[in-house]
Design a protein that fits this description.
The complex is a heterotrimer of chains A (about 375), B (about 260) and C (about 300). Chain A is of the alpha+beta class. Chain A has helices at about 1-5, 10-20, 25-30, 40-45, 50-60, 65-70, 75-90, 145-155, 160-165, 200-205, 210-220, 290-305, 320-325, 330-335, 345-365, and strands at about 105-110, 230-245, 255-265, 280-285. Chain A has 2 domains: about 1-90, no CATH class; about 100-125 and about 150-175 and about 190-330, no CATH class. Chain A has 15 helices and 4 strands. With about 300 residues, chain C is α/β, with parallel strands linked by helices. Chain C has 7 helices and 14 strands. The longest helix of chain C is centred in the N-terminal third of the chain and has 16 residues, at about 15-30. The chains are: A alpha+beta (about 375), B alpha/beta (about 260), C alpha/beta (about 300). At the A-C interface, α1, α2, α7, α14 and α15 of A face α3 and β11 of C.
Chain lengths: ~375, ~260, ~300
């Protein structure tokens, strides 16, 4: 037992061999030969939501690499995220793309909980909503009914963002304040974190934050811990074109399309001395199909703006330092799991102290 | 006992603080002399706590000025002080007694540690001396010596307030701000605490600004009283004069409501 | 469909630009001893909290002529030390050693070697929580202000409470120090036993906290005073007994449980020191491989040897 901790190199090599064997499916099948490997292509095609999560928290849009990482991590999402991030951070950076125009995206899915009908219409798209959660014996692919396409034809063109529609009446806060200087946002991964953060930095941190953590925080605001009175103004999913302007060329060139999910929460705001009551906004954006993440992010984004609106800050979701410091699951998992590392020097020090304190305690008992 | 001094300790001139476009208090002017106790009275929302926050530099001075005579005898415009300078004043020259003891104490640090902290913050590094001084001050606020290692969390409301007072007097401040120091306590406890404050302040010759909604507090411990309503000062003068012969209609109302109540 | 691009890692893992970022932070840290310099900590291929800060610092200071030693809990052969050493061998092709006196760069977790360090050596500490005031004041915004204004009363309150309660200061590791008479600093969770070694040390001491994104430093020959009161000065922990393998006294010891009846033996935590001290006195011990031959004392070591 003692040697196992001190025994270093050999133990590590053996452990890694065993790990690889476990991931091969050998034990499960009861066969001596490893099972057929799942191709990362299959994972990408059939577990797209999972791949999206790894891309989001790994902060890299690359379904192939995310799928590979998931396979190597034997399905451990946080391991896969770590693999992806540690790789991404070593890659050279060419620059930043032009801001995405999500209004121009022809959505595969677009719903609004605030208006029954709106320009561009509602479109359900691929969603688990309204499915009956009954386990199926086998998964089937049914044909998409023909008339759906006809309806699509009836609602052509673009679908303007709901907040742009509402914005014309100034009932919703604008995209950015009037005195807004269009500065390049800071880059969370390249500059040190210091609080208080700007909203762009905060949104970056939330975008790569743990889905479960943000979900719980968003949920807590709905239960009264920092209530923001949210309405799902709009959720949209679709592919959007990514533009890049290389310095040598001097104009924007499309470099590809990525699938994204965007959520705009519309929240009540009672107004203050400086501002009349109006709807405020929380924003969520994620790679791929990740609606729950985008919605949670939007709720938390709005909660974190409480200081900006002069609201009372009493709940965890409103506390920037608390939320941002603990949202990153690579950091959280690492530090929780580091408790597995040997601590016997510290423990020894505590042991010696405890014995001393006990001896002193008994001594004083005797004296008394 | 008012010490002889050529200039006031605090000189406030047309001072105001606003929240958004609404003023919490505005146009406040008065002088506070060394050794003088000034009561600021008014109803809730009258701006008295805002005034206290502004004087103690917890809130900005948005209009007018507040000058303070430092220990070196300089009249200093508080608005010009940097954060480190303000914090040095908090550490070495000013005390602040909160209404809620939990805001002014570390509830889970021993009474001795609470009273000793300001000394340690000012560089004291001899445990025995710090502890002796803390014990001495706890005794002065009538807390039994055997409670020194217990935490305020285990104390009654009146005891917590007394620990808070000891913590604010232990380093020898020149000016102490008090925000409703006795409200929230039982009546009998209030009376005892006021008595204690009055005798300590007199013994030490402290200058005090005490905010209270309770005219009896003003009557008992202050030399002068300033009456606030809607963010403005409506009347000020010697406490006995203000309470016995109120000039402003609002003060008359306040005084009569006390008599009736 | 296009062929997928190959996965390629940079030589030395960190790219040169990142190394420059870390070095700038290091230089700032050295210029302001004990001050925590924020830096944009990168991901490295091991979990946060497992030495990612130390790894980034080491990767940024190590060169082709360097000889690296990695220890965890004082030992060269604990799993995490092995893992980090293998990482550098793999990505940087660096030469490594277990000898403290030979190494030019020593990355450590939780210990300072027993062998005195010399000029020219660099000691890199892995730091989990760089903020000495963290458990007294959880807010970064507030702790930064306290450091800036040199308001350390709170730190002394903690020590004061210990003395009131126990009759002495009851902090045994990560014992706070005052660096160069200005900044209170967390020495990382080294035992208080090691604290005196930091004072006026001829080696350069660098501290990396990857998860918390902070770097700080103690330049050679800098004053590092462990906090205490005039009448209750800092007292490092000491052990009464010598190491049962090499016979060294005045060293930090691991307590090795030998049976389920309270039996234990005390051995050096610093394996390099122990190995060399043991060979000097004639014990056959090769602790670096985790296999020991003990003198025939019969202290229940049977089950311990693989």
């Amino acid at each position: 037992m003692y040697v196992a901790v001190k025994g270093g190199e050999k133990a590590i090599a053996n452990a890694h061999a065993l790990l690889a064997q476990r991931g091969s499916g050998q034990e499960d099948s009861g066969e001596s030969a490893a099972q057929e490997r799942i191709a990362s292509r299959q994972l990408r095609g059939q577990m797209g939501v999972l791949v999206s999560r790894v891309m989001n928290e790994g902060s890299l849009y690359d379904p192939n690499l995310a799928a590979k990482a998931l396979l190597q991590a034997q399905g451990d999402v946080l391991e896969a995220v770590t693999l992806l991030r540690s790789y991404r951070t070593t890659l050279p950076r060419f620059g930043a793309t032009v801001a995405l125009d999500t209004g121009a995206l022809p959505p595969e899915r677009r719903i609004s909980a605030t208006f029954k009908d709106l320009p561009g219409g509602q479109q359900l798209g691929a969603t688990f909503d309204y499915t009956h959660r009954l386990l199926a014996e086998r998964l089937q692919v049914s044909e998409i009914p023909k008339d759906t396409e006809e309806e699509d034809d009836a609602a052509p063109g673009t679908m303007p963002r709901i907040t742009d529609l509402l914005g014309h009446g100034s009932l919703v806060e604008p995209d950015h304040p009037e005195d807004w200087a269009d500065e390049d946002p800071g880059d969370l991964t390249r500059e040190p974190t210091t609080f208080p953060m700007t909203r762009p930095e905060r949104l970056q941190a939330l975008a790569r934050g743990d889905e479960g953590f943000l979900l719980s925080l968003g949920y807590s605001t709905q239960r009264g811990f920092g209530n923001t009175h949210p309405f799902a103004g709009e959720v949209r999913v679709g592919e959007v074109e990514v533009l890049f302007e290389p310095a040598e060329i001097g104009y924007e060139v499309p470099i590809g399309r990525i699938e994204i999910t965007e959520c705009q929460m519309v929240n009540q705001f009672v107004g203050s001395a400086e501002k009349p009551p109006q709807f405020t906004r929380g924003y969520g954006l994620s790679f791929g199909r990740a609606e729950r993440k985008a919605m949670s992010m939007a709720l938390v984004d709005r909660a974190l703006r409480s200081e900006e609106f002069g609201e009372r800050r009493i709940s965890p979701a409103q506390d920037e330092e608390f939320v941002i410091s603990h949202a990153d699951n690579v950091q959280a998992a690492g530090f929780v799991e580091h408790l597995k590392l040997p601590h016997y020097v510290d423990f020894q020090a505590e042991l010696v102290l405890l014995r001393q304190l006990n001896a002193e305690f008994e001594g004083s008992e005797d004296a008394g | 006992m008012i010490a002889e001094s050529a200039s006031p300790l605090l000189s406030v001139s047309g001072a105001g603080h606003h929240y958004g476009n609404r003023f919490g208090c505005r146009g406040v002017s008065f002088d506070l002399w060394p050794g003088e106790v000034l009561a600021v009275v008014g109803e809730s929302g009258s701006g008295k706590s805002t005034l206290l926050g502004m004087l103690s530099q917890r809130l900005n001075i948005d209009e007018g000025s507040v000058h303070y005579q430092t220990a070196e005898g300089q009249m200093t415009d508080l608005a010009t002080l940097s954060e480190p300078e303000v914090r040095r004043l908090w550490r070495t020259e000013w005390g602040f007694v909160h209404q809620n003891a939990a805001e002014g104490l570390r509830m889970h640090v021993s009474a001795g540690g609470n009273v000793g902290e300001p000394l340690m913050a000012n560089g004291a590094r001899h445990y025995g001396k710090i502890r002796a001084r803390a014990a001495d001050w706890l005794q002065r606020v009538e807390i039994l010596a055997d409670r020194i290692d217990e935490t305020p969390a285990t104390f009654s409301g009146g005891m917590r307030q007394r620990v808070q007072i000891a913590r604010n007097l232990v380093f020898g401040p020149r000016l102490v701000f008090m925000d409703e120091p006795t409200s929230g306590l039982d009546v009998s406890v209030q009376a005892k605490l006021l008595d204690l404050i009055r005798s300590l302040v007199a013994d030490l010759g402290l200058a005090v600004v005490v905010v209270t909604h309770d005219l009896a507090v003003a009557r008992l411990i202050s030399h002068r009283t300033l009456v606030m309503q809607g963010g403005q000062v409506v009347e000020q003068g010697l406490t006995d004069r203000v309470l016995d012969d109120p000039q402003a209609a609002y003060t008359q109302l306040l005084v009569s409501s006390i008599l009736k109540g | 469909m296009l062929a997928e691009p190959r996965i390629v890692y940079n030589e030395g893992y960190l790219d040169e630009q990142t190394k420059r970022v870390v070095r700038r932070a290091l230089l700032k840290g050295i210029a302001i001893p004990g001050f925590q310099v924020p830096f944009a900590s990168r991901e490295v291929p091991m979990p946060r909290g497992w030495g990612t800060g130390g790894v980034q610092v080491t990767a940024s200071v190590i060169g082709p002529d360097d000889l690296l030693k990695v220890i965890d809990q004082g030992a060269d052969d604990t799993t995490n030390a092995v893992s980090i050493r293998q990482f550098f061998e793999r990505v940087a092709g660096s030469e490594s050693t277990t000898r403290t006196d030979e190494a030019t760069v020593i990355q450590t977790r939780h210990r300072i070697p027993e062998t005195p360090l010399a000029e020219g050596q660099i000691l890199v500490y892995q730091v989990p929580i760089p903020e000495p005031l963290r458990f007294l004041e959880p807010r970064e915004t507030e702790t930064r202000r306290l450091h800036a204004l040199e308001e350390y009363g709170l730190m002394y309150v903690k020590l004061f409470e210990d003395i009131s309660r126990y009759g002495h200061i009851a902090k045994t590791y990560d014992y706070p120090v005052m660096v160069n008479g200005r900044y209170v600093m967390a020495p990382s969770p080294v035992p208080s036993f090691d604290n005196p070694k930091m004072h006026m040390n001829p080696a350069l001491q660098l501290f990396g906290a990857g998860r918390e994104k902070r770097i700080y430093a103690v330049p050679p020959y800098t004053s590092v005073e462990s906090l205490g009161f005039e009448d209750f000065p800092f007292e490092p922990q000491q052990f009464d007994q010598p190491c049962q393998i090499c016979g060294s006294s005045g060293v930090y010891l691991d307590e090795v449980v030998t049976d389920d009846a309270g039996g234990a033996m005390y051995v050096c935590s610093d394996t390099d020191h122990c190995t060399r001290a043991a060979s000097a006195v004639g014990f056959r011990a090769s602790r670096t491989r985790g296999e020991w031959d003990f003198p025939a004392t019969g202290t229940g070591t049977e089950g311990a040897v693989q």
